Amino acid sequence: MFGRYRGTFRREHGDIMVEAETVDGLLTYRRRCGEQTFERILISDTGEVIINPVEPVNLPRDITDFLLMEFSPMMVEPGTSRTVYLKFPVEIGVFVESAKDIEVLDVFAPGSQKYTLYGSPTTGVIARWYRSAVYPEIPPVERFCEGVMELSIHNASHEWVEVSCAVFENIDMKIYYGDFVAASAKMKILGPFLAETDFIDAPLRPGMVKSIELYTARKIPVINRGYLMEWGF
Amino acid sequence: MAFNVTEVLEIPIGVGDITVERILYFAVILMAGVIIAKFVATNVRRVLSERLPVNERELLTKLVYYGIIVWAIVVALPQLNFDLSGLLVAGGIAGLVIGFASQSVVSNLISGLFLMFEHPIRIGDNINVADVSGNVEDIRVLSTVIKTYDGIYIRIPNEKVFTSNITNYVHNPARRFTYEIRIRYADDANAAIRIAREVIETHPFALKSPAPSVFVDNLGDNSVNLTAYIWAPARNWWDVRTDLLWKIKVALEENGIEIPFPQRTVRFADGLEVKGRSAGERGEKE
């Protein structure tokens, strides 16, 4: 399903169907995902439709840029680094691209979403919530529902700390896809309640294709500065 | 009689040696300033439309707009023989006079600047100020424009906004709302709590944390009263509130738990014969 398409096409996977077909002489994009459908007429001479996984913070409405990954609590020794693997939710973005411009056409995902508050109700942030188990190696995932996040945790503090969540600002999330969807991130623990998180722009396996990001398509300038978790982890 | 443009332009208007030509120059410079200000402000707004939050974008656009207007006035005033350096000398006295004359205008202006920089409200916020509730449409130099939930335009002077109690419903990222759910005494309250929690759990914007709370709050005359506290993103709480209540009601009814009607048990000391029974019913009784 992921890839570039020109003219008419049809891709189907389980509950998901994406197609572009000619209806009454007009090229029409159609999508079905579960019970939800979406349709747009495409007026284009040279445009291509691109389908790839995108930052999972857009559904059911775009209300935040943050993703909170909750996982089984881990005790981390001072000065220790360890790489673990988590599963993160995947949203599928559909773009229309021409030589001059690229625009978001559709975003959808199987399954449901849940949001949470990280921090206090006065100064915290709303974040997309997702719970994952912790895996020592790349776990098997359902390609269009979940992706694999490689998370490098480094405890730079002088104390043992318990880590059970990581919050990421998704505006600089770099997603790659191949046999599965993947992203890489790091988490540096600075103190008992303070940690820095950031995404790494590198494929998890050689040959993976980099996704077009929603922020790029929406022409929103982004400064890659990571996120400072100030309300614990 | 021939019409000579040059002569017309050189006609003095009676104030000093100001001529029609100078008045025209003054007007043209001012008009050019306004046109340039509008052009630049429009482009600044367009360029920044997706790069800055609406509040900061509008503030910057206004600063650019009024900056160019002030520049045009400074350039145009010498055409009227207006010596700006004289303003500095007369500034103290003129300031006093203007200050007294335009006290409310200056007060609104200063309040507007404080509102822009302090940010108690932003464009798009749901607020209640000076007994007016609605969305902030614009924060101008002298006034704040609010569109009420009925779509009515209301302009409030900035001084009034600044000195009133402001309730900003969306200033914090999350807010809590409450449902009161009544069930019959015959129903299982624990089951009702579990069902309500399950329904709340399925809603994407009913926040995971702070966790929703559903509990038996009190025992009423006609019902067991449950209370549900639910946190939602401040900008979406109304959608969540309107969406969830009916879903909870439907889920409870599907599980045999009903919302009771008010009821009274009435006892008569001497008993009471019910009148209007049919003859058959009376016969059976006898």
Task: Describe this protein's structure.
The complex is a heterodimer of chains A (233) and B (286). Chain A has one helix and 19 strands. With 233 residues, chain A is mainly beta. The model of chain A has no long low-confidence stretch (mean pLDDT 90). The longest helix of chain A is centred in the last third of the chain and has 4 residues, at 214-217. In chain A, 2% of the residues lie in helices and 54% in strands. Chain B has a five-stranded antiparallel β-sheet with strand order 4-3-2-1-5. Chain B has a three-stranded antiparallel β-sheet with strand order 6-8-7, with helices on one face. The longest helix of chain B is centred in the first third of the chain and has 28 residues, at 20-47. Chain B starts with a helix and ends with a helix. Chains A and B meet through β11 and β12 of A and β6 of B.
Largest interface: A-B, 23 and 18 residues
Whole-number average pLDDT of chain B? 84
Unreliable segments of 5+ consecutive residues of chain A: none
Summarize model confidence as the mean pLDDT of chain A.
Answer: 90
Helix fraction bin of chain A: under 10%
The helix-strand sequence of chain A is EEEEEEEEEEEEEEEEEEHE
Please report which band the strand proportion of chain B falls in: under 5%, 5-15%, 15-25%, 25-35%, 35-45% or over 45%: 15-25%
List the SSEs and their pairings.
The complex is a heterodimer of chains A (233) and B (286).
Chain A: E1 3-5, E2 9-13, E3 16-23, E4 26-33, E5 36-42, E6 48-54, E7 66-76, E8 81-89, E9 91-97, E10 102-108, E11 115-118, E12 125-132, E13 146-155, E14 161-169, E15 175-177, E16 181-189, E17 195-200, E18 209-210, H1 214-217, E19 227-229
Parallel strand pairs in A: 7-12, 13-16
Antiparallel strand pairs in A: 1-6, 2-3, 3-4, 4-5, 6-9, 7-14, 8-13, 9-10, 11-12, 15-16, 15-18, 16-17, 17-19
Chain B: H1 5-9, H2 20-47, H3 54-76, H4 84-101, H5 103-118, E1 126-129, E2 132-139, E3 143-148, E4 153-157, H6 158-163, E5 166-168, E6 174-183, H7 189-202, E7 213-219, E8 224-233, H8 237-254, H9 279-285
Antiparallel strand pairs in B: 1-2, 1-5, 2-3, 3-4, 6-8, 7-8
Helix pairs in contact in B: 2-3, 7-8
